[in-house]
Design a protein that fits this description.
With 144 residues, the protein is mostly beta strands. It has 2 helices and 9 strands. It is globular and about 50 Å long. The chain binds zinc ion.
């Protein structure tokens, strides 16, 4: 685990499918935070052939539901004192709230600030589809 070294305390987002590292980087808004971050791309991997890795130094409130929407290959390592103290797997969330927006332009959630939509996973083969609790519209998840 040579690549994990060099971080004393922080998060390593490992096993990102090759090419999706930039998507994760952008969706987590890592260019907007003060933490030191590293995006490593096309690293040879036994399991995936090639993979991407993101390292975030220090404290960071990681949205693992968001990672689950992007790539379920991802494994998260929490580092403290140069050691992995916790490993987390990510999975497709059954329900999401603030991560996605309803695809129905007339949905009340776009107009009313207090209408916070909750989306429930309805379909999960190939692409993900979530149903809005306000208007029942299905919203497809696509990250590029
Ligand atoms: Zn809606």
């Amino acid at each position: 685990m040579r690549l994990v070294n060099g971080i004393e305390k922080g998060i390593v987002i490992d096993h990102i499918s090759s090419g999706k590292g930039m998507v994760v980087y952008n969706k987590l808004n890592l260019s907007q935070i003060a933490n030191t971050t590293v995006l490593l791309m096309n690293i040879p991997s036994k399991h995936l052939g090639r993979k991407d890795i993101i390292k975030i130094e220090g404290d960071f409130d990681l949205n693992t539901a968001l990672l689950g929407l992007i790539d379920t290959n991802i494994k998260v390592n929490i580092i403290e004192n140069n050691e992995v103290i916790m490993k987390k797997f990510v999975e497709v969330p059954n329900q999401v709230s603030d991560i996605i927006k309803c695809s129905n332009p007339r949905c009340i959630s776009h107009i009313d600030d207090y209408a916070k939509p909750v989306f429930t996973l309805m379909k999960q083969n190939g692409e993900l589809e979530y149903q809005c609790n306000y208007c029942d519209e299905l919203t497809k998840i696509k990250f590029k």
